[in-house]
């Protein structure tokens, strides 16, 4: 078995523990995604052996693992003291922590692009998302710099699709001509965005299995970047031969895990019936149909609801599944958009803002689009004639020695320098250019460097309006 994606965790566990992990994983998948299974285990945890065997779960102690139910159902954290005599529950905890650490390391490893301008824009968007989406959602977003779609539309038509994917119209096949085109596109992407391309993937509002050549494209991606990217499929049972090839592909390239999006209890049971616990070790099952996850679905795309007059949790209203701060490239229509996540809104119902859109007919044109948008859409400073205004979702409050801005999640406070209160008040007016604001403040406060540095800090934190709203 290969747990390389868990870093050195593999070396810290015994062979028996290693064998248990896929079965513990499956036990919890059933507990969260199959209400009948959960009820049966709750009713007779010590006597549920035959049920476990029927689901392909072997070697685990359900009594130990049931102690973690409140945690896996996201109800409450179980105190460590309650798990002291439950080594299997502790093993799962250690495994979960190792996979979380690996995800974090992975983010760091993709590095920076060769363009400082892109990197500072990217960091500014990450900071804005931290303020608008909250720490938890933002930490779950990888903010990859490029994503490719290998089809136009999606055959699945999920009613909750946060990206409101169109119906499937066309597939980008691996013909000789397209293969050359694809490799050229990958090369130009690497030239412009460097090692960060390895953090990208090859689906978005598309279903990977709609493209029969999907794995060939993935293979090229891996050869070019050194990373064989993650796949999420919502159709793991549609073509079992295709799914088996995907599982084989992942076993060969263990750098990341793939995901099956599970839409019903029957699909979960079908997946467990067709694939062993070991087969699925490198595959996370996203239990979309479970009560636990369906409450957390992004309020975007086809799942958009009217929350007016409704006191729902802020995290439900602002959640987005968009995870790209960079270029979304569709290989069928040869289109490209520069986007970044944001809370779903009337203006941005898909949970991402669009900075620029274009088309390309060859790799050089895609490179030109990337270069041009880095130049145009990613200023490193506020220009003198830019109107200075705070982001529309921020609530401004004047303080005796400065001001504070309150988002749905964070309080951003700027205080302690004599010019700050006046700076906050003038920006809150929302109708003065940067040079007008500076000129007015300079009448009383002569420290221009302190003033410019305050404006830069607001800009870098993504607290200033950039004309896109939402
Ligand atoms: S959720 Fe995924 S699989 Fe379902 S329609 Fe949207 S893009 Fe397709």
Number of domains: 3
Terminal-residue CA separation:
46 Å
Report the principal-axis shape: globular
Chain-averaged pLDDT: 92
Which structural class fits the helix and strand makeup? Answer: alpha/beta
Which terms summarize this structure?
alpha/beta, Outer Surface Protein A, domain 3, three-stranded parallel beta sheet, 18 helices, 14 strands, globular, binds iron/sulfur cluster
Q: In short, what is this structure?
A:
This protein has about 475 residues and is an alpha/beta fold.
Describe this structure in words.
The structure is a single chain. The mean pLDDT is 92. The radius of gyration is 25 Å and the shape is globular. It has 18 helices and 14 strands. It has three domains: 4-101, no CATH class; 114-377, TIM Barrel (Alpha-Beta Barrel); 387-460, Outer Surface Protein A, domain 3 (Alpha-Beta Complex), CATH 3.90.930. The chain has helices at 15-33, 35-43, 49-54, 62-66, 69-72, 87-109, 116-133, 135-140, 176-193, 214-225, 240-252, 265-274, 291-294, 314-318, 363-377, 420-429, 434-442, 448-460; strands at residues 144-149, 151-152, 170-171, 232-233, 258-262, 283-287, 324-330, 335-341, 352-359, 387-388, 395-399, 402-406, 411-415, 432-433. The two termini are 46 Å apart. Helix 1 (15-33) packs across helix 2 (35-43) and helix 9 (176-193) packs parallel to helix 15 (363-377). Helix content is 42%, strand content 13%. It has a four-stranded mixed beta sheet. A three-stranded parallel beta sheet has the order 4-5-6. It has 470 residues and is α/β, with parallel strands linked by helices. The protein binds iron/sulfur cluster. Iron/sulfur cluster is lined by residues 154, 156-158, 161, 163, 165, 205, 207, 234.
